[in-house]
Design goal:
By secondary structure, this protein is an alpha/beta fold. Helices cover 29% and strands 14% of the residues. Strands 1, 2, 3 and 4 form a four-stranded mixed beta sheet that branches. The N and C termini lie far apart (59 Å).
């Protein structure tokens, strides 16, 4: 491995590159925005269906992954940038880091949680057909009973 540092330039928002860098053993330095970027002040987000405000290039990493993996800095402050680069280059104890939520197990857990808590009877899609997790379960929250569609189970 030759690279130890990945520097974000503020765009793309929530791109996969920082996660790929972490997985390959590179620390990620990203800019902190002085004012959150949102659909009202950022042309790229203007037509996007979100009210979300981006406080950095990747707010998830900013809030949930700490140093020595991710550094979120005010890029207008040269001392902050220099310090983040120095700190990140001093820490060489990781060859790969993948946040749990982005592992296979974490993804399957999120999908299972979504399915477990989704009300399939109230989603407006009556054509949806789904097998129950267990043929012994007759709980509507688990989904339709084997061989029945949502309309038969929910109404």
């Amino acid at each position: 491995q030759e690279s130890r540092l990945f520097i974000g330039l503020g765009f793309p928002y929530d791109g996969p590159e920082p996660l790929e860098a972490l997985a390959n053993g590179c620390a990620f330095i990203q800019p902190k925005f002085s004012e959150p970027h949102d659909r009202y002040n950022t042309l790229f987000l203007h037509s996007k269906p979100t009210e979300r405000g981006y406080t950095s290039q990747n707010p998830y990493l900013e809030k949930h992954i700490e140093e020595p993996y991710v550094y979120t800095v005010d890029v207008n402050n040269d001392d902050n940038v220099r310090n983040a680069v120095k700190k990140s280059l001093q820490y060489t104890n990781f060859s790969s880091f993948v946040p749990y939520e982005f592992t296979q197990e974490g993804m399957l857990e999120r999908i299972a949680t979504y399915i477990r808590h989704h009300n399939f009877c109230d989603n407006g899609n009556l054509a949806l057909k789904r097998k129950a997790w267990s043929s012994h379960s007759k709980n509507i929250a688990d989904g339709p009973i084997d061989g029945q569609d949502t309309t038969s189970t929910c109404y």
